[in-house]
Amino acid sequence: MGNERLLLGFMRKYWYFYGSAIIALGISNVIQSYYPRVLGQFADQLQTTGITPEAIEHYSLLLLGIGVTYGVMFAVGQYTVMRLGRYFEFTTRRKLFAHFTGLSENYYSKHGVGELLSYVMNDVTAVRESISIGFNQTTNAIILILSAMVMMSLSSIPIYLILVCVLPLLAIPVVVVYLGPMIRKRSLKVQESLAKMTESAEEQFGGIRVTKKFAVEGVMQQRFGRTVDTIRDNQLRLVRISSLFQAALPFLGALSLVITVIFGGYLTIQHRITLGNFVSLTLYLRMMVNPLQNIGNVINTMQRSRASLERIKKLLDVPADIRESQHAKPLEQSASDISIRGLSFAYPGASQQVLRDIDIVVRPGTTLGIIGKTGSGKTTLVKLLLRIYEPPEGTIRIGRQDIRHATLESLRSHIAYVPQDGFLFSTTLRENIAFSDREHLPAEAVEEASRQAQLYNNIIDFSERFETKLGERGITLSGGQRQRTSLARGFIKEAPILILDDSVSAVDAVTETRIIEKLREERTGKTTIIIAHRISALQHADEIIVLDEGRIAQRGTHQELLAEEGLYASLHAIQEEGTRHAEGS
Ligand SMILES: Nc1ncnc2c1ncn2[C@@H]1O[C@H](COP(=O)(O)OP(=O)(O)OP(=O)(O)O)[C@@H](O)[C@H]1O
Q1: Are strands 401-402 and 415-418 parallel, antiparallel or unpaired?
Q2: CB of 354 closer than 6 A to ligand 1?
Q3: Inter-residue contact 414 to 496 (CB < 8 Å)
Q4: Ligand 1: does its nearest atom lie under 6 Å from the Cβ of 274?
C-alpha cells in the first residue's frame, strides 16, 4: 500500500480534475446504456404495430441524440484524464531529478546512468499509462456495467434470466485475483531487465570509441545481445500470462452470450418474454463484455504499473547520505584557512582506511601542493573537503568552523574544484566556462578566465569563438583543451579556496608553466591547493605534502624536500631525467 501513496497523494491533489472526469465519463456511459433499451423498444414496436415513418424518425433521432451526447461527454472525460496522466509524468520526473541531485557520489558509484534513466523513462511512463488509460477505462467500465445492470432490472426482463446469463461474468474477479500478482511479479522482472539494457546501451555508446579502437565490436555485440535476450525471455513470460488473462475474459463473455441465446431464445419462443426483451438482453450482455475485458486490461496495466511504482518509491526512499545538520550555518565569507586534524577515513563498506592521521594547516592566502603515487588518497582528501563523502566530525575546519556544521551550499560555493576530467556539457564554450553562474557572469569574465587557463588563443581560432557548441561530452575539443576549459570554469568562480586536482596533466610543459605563473599572479592572497603528479606543477607551493598509502610521508617546501632523501627527491630525479631525455631526443 505504501507504494500507492505516491499515486494517491497525486490523485488527492488533483481531486477536482478526477471528479469532473468521473462526472463526464459517468454521464457518457449512462447515456450509452440507453442504447439497447431503445433498440429493444424499437423491436417490440416492429413486432406489434409494424414499422411507420414516424417510428423510424423518432428512434433514429433518439439514437443520434444518444450518440452525440455520449461522444461529447466521453471526449471531455478522456481529455481530462489524459491531461492528468501527463501531469503525473512530468511532476514525477522533476521529483526524481531533484532526488537524483541530492544523492551522493557513493550512490552513483553503485548505480549506472542507464539504470537511473530507466526510472525516468520506462517506470514513469508505465505509471502514467495506468493513470490515464487505466483510470479512463475503469471508470467507463464500472459505470457502464452498473448502468447496464440497472437498466436491465428496470426493464421487464425477468431477474432470474438476467442472473443466469450474467453468471459466467462473475468468474472474472476470480481470474483477476488469481493471475494479477503473477503478472505483477513478471512485470517487475521486465522492468529490471529493461533498466539493465538501458544501462548497458548507455555504457556501450559511451565507450564506442574505445570499442572501435580495440576492434572488439563482436564481443560488445554479444554482451549487449545477452541483455536483450534476458528482456525477451522476461517479456515472453509476461506475455504468456497476460495473454491467458486476456483470453479468459472474452471467453467468459462469449459463454454468457451463449446462455442468453439458449435460455432467452427459449423463453421468447414460449412468449414468456418479448422479442424486444430478448434483443435488449443480448445487447446489454454484449455491451458488458467489452468493459469487463477492459477491466482485465486495466488490471494488467495496473499490476505492471504497481511494479514500476514500487521501483520509483524505493528510489525516492533512498536517503541522501550527505545531509545538512539541523544547525548548519553558512561558512564565514572571508575564511580561507583550512585546518585538518587527525583525519582518518575509509570508504563506506570498505575495511581499509585510505587516509590515516592526516594533519595539515593551510594558512589563508597560501598554496599547498599535494603529490603522491596513484591511489595514495589525494582525491579522497579533496572529496572530504567538499563533503562529497562525510569526513569524521571535528577533523576539517575552514576558518573556525567545522565543515560538518556548514551549509553544503556555502561550502561548495566557497571552494572552486577543478577535477582532472571535468565533465563538459554539450552546450557552448561560454556556458561551460560560466557554469557556476551562467546567468550573471559577464562575457569579459569568461574571456579573462579563458586567458588565465591559456585557452583564449584556441577559442579565437574557432569560427564561432565562445559560442562554439561542444559535442556530446566536448568531443570536438582535444584532451588538453577540455582540461583547460574545465580550469577556466574553476578560475572564473573566484572562490576563496581553489583546488586543482591533477588539472594540468594533459597540457604540455610550456603551457603548464604559463598556467601556473598566471595562477600565482591571480591568486595572491587566496588559498590554493594543487594536486599533481608532476613536480613542476607544484614546486612553487608554500608547503608540499607527499602522500604515501594514505599517510603523510614527507612535508616541506620544494627546496627542503629536495634536500632530504625520500619519495619526493626520487620523483624529482626521475622527472628531471625524463625531461632531459625528451629535450635530447
Ligand atoms: N568510491 C570509492 N569507494 C571505495 N574506494 C575508493 C573509492 N574511490 C577511491 N577509492 C580507493 O581509495 C584509494 C585512494 O583513491 P584516490 O582517488 O584518493 O587516489 P589518488 O591519490 O587521487 O589517485 P590518482 O593519483 O590516481 O588520482 C584508492 O585505493 C581507490 O581505489
Answers
A1: unpaired
A2: yes
A3: yes
A4: no
What's the CA angle centered on 14, arms 10 and 18, to 5 degrees? 110
Query: Which homologous superfamily does the CATH classification assign to the domain defined by 4-316?
Result: ABC transporter type 1, transmembrane domain (1.20.1560.10)
Does residue 350's CB lie within 6 angstroms of at least one atom of ligand 1? yes
Q: Do domains 4-316 and 338-424+481-584 have the same CATH topology?
A: no
- Residue given cell 550555518 in the structure block: 329
C-alpha cell at 551: 599517510
Nearest CA to ligand 1 atom 27: 374
Using DSSP's 3-state secondary structure scheme, residue 416 falls into strand
CA of 236 to the centre of ligand 1 (A): 43
Instruction: Decide: 168 in ligand 1 pocket, CB within 6 A.
Output: no
Pocket test for ligand 1, best of 380, 531, 571 (most atoms within 8 A of CB): 380
φ, ψ dihedrals at 33, nearest 5°: -70, -10
Q: Spell out a b/e string for 449-482, using b for 16 or more CB atoms within 10 Å of the CB, else e.
A: bbebbbbbebbeeeeeebebebeeebebbeebbb
Q: What does the pLDDT look like over 220-236, one tens digit per residue? A: 788 888 888 888 888 89
- Write down the ipTM of this complex: 0.96
Shortest CA distance to 372 belongs to which of 532, 528, 565?
532
Could you read off the pLDDT of 257-285 as tens digits, one per residue?
Answer: 889 889 999 998 998 888 888 888 888 88
Q: 532-560 burial string, b = 16+ CB within 10 Å, else e? A: bbbbbbbbbbebbbbbeebbbbbbbebee
Atom of ligand 1 nearest to the CA of 420: 27
Question: Where is pLDDT greater, at 109 or 186?
Answer: 186
Q: What is the pLDDT of residue 328?
A: 80
- 510 CB under 6 A from ligand 1? no
Domain boundaries, the chain: 4-316, 338-424+481-584
Kindly report the protein residue whose alpha carbon is nearest to atom 9 of ligand 1: 380
Report which of 572, 508, 484, 522 is spatially closest to residue 367, judged by C-alpha positions. 522
Given CATH 3.30.470.30, say whether it is the number of domain 338-424+481-584.
no
